Prior knowledge:
- The protein has helices at residues 34-43, 45-58, 172-176, 223-233, 287-292; strands at residues 2-6, 10-15, 18-21, 62-63, 69-70, 79-82, 100-102, 108-109, 114-116, 124-135, 151-163, 182-190, 201-206, 209-215, 241-243, 259-264, 269-275, 281-282, 301-303.
- The chain contains 5 helices and 19 strands.
- It is an alpha+beta fold and 307 residues long.
- It has 2 domains: 2-70, no CATH class; 79-303, Alpha-Beta Complex (Fumarylacetoacetate hydrolase, domain 2).
- Strands 1, 2, 3, 4, 5, 6, 7, 8, 10, 11, 12 and 15 form a 12-stranded mixed sheet that branches.
- 15% of the residues lie in helices and 32% in strands.
Amino acid sequence: MKLVFYDDFKLGVMNGDTVVDAASAVSGIHHHSPQDLLNQLIENFSQYRSNLEELARQGTGAPVDSVRLRSPMPKPNNIVAMAVNYMEDGTRAEPAPINAFHKSANSVIGNGDTMILPDVPAAIFEGEAEMALVIGKRASHVSADDAYDYIFGYLNFIDGSARGLPPAGNTFYQMKSRETFAPMGPWLVTADEISDPHNLQIRLSVNEELKQNFNTSDMAHNIPRVIEWVSSIHTLEPGDVIATGTNHRGLSAFLDGDHIDLEVDGLGVLHFNVQDELKRTWARETRLDRADKGLEGTTPQISGKYS
């Protein structure tokens, strides 16, 4: 099943290429916000699943290209993003120590929205292609063996980054939690539709040029281990998001006017745009391109403020 929010954050369910209004199926849920509605639906999904499935099978709706899709996770209570969680196509000798950071719920945008590059002296702006999971029930000190029981679904996720901000070492918070730096969508896919989350191809294109192309099989710390570790630090609630990391070798600069497409197998295609009022420029080379030239680090800024 594919759940969406659309237009003024109406809850919908996908029926092929149409969006069916799901209000009638969840009318018994009293809520204060779209995220509150979704969290309660996730927590009590068994009560509403059959009605939603019936809508998905037989309901009539609007063509998806005639509505405005919003983030399927409008404002999660927790967005936990795994750090350095890929083996980078075998170029890492061993996994990095398991690590993560929080992203602000105010960084979320949805399909068709725009990532705004702020007026800060970043060395480069990047967006990391990721597959994220959504927690289905309260999770505290979950064992790896039981971890899949706690997953409600999966979705496309971008971890926007403003790298290299001063002072040195003051990293994750100011780099990752900027407004608009967490695009998600276009929909939330329930876990039963994904047979093996460790065998999904992830592709990110910038202006229709493929930049990132890797498989979740390259993950350093797998999903059960991630849930085990995160839930040992703090409790996870229904509707919380865990982004599972990226393979950094295909990362390249995001520039003003870029059109970005992220596709994870089975999760649809997330489209969004990039805007930079300062019109700063960087070369289009990826980190892998630079490595092949014997160069280290990210490509330097070419023009504009802070160059």
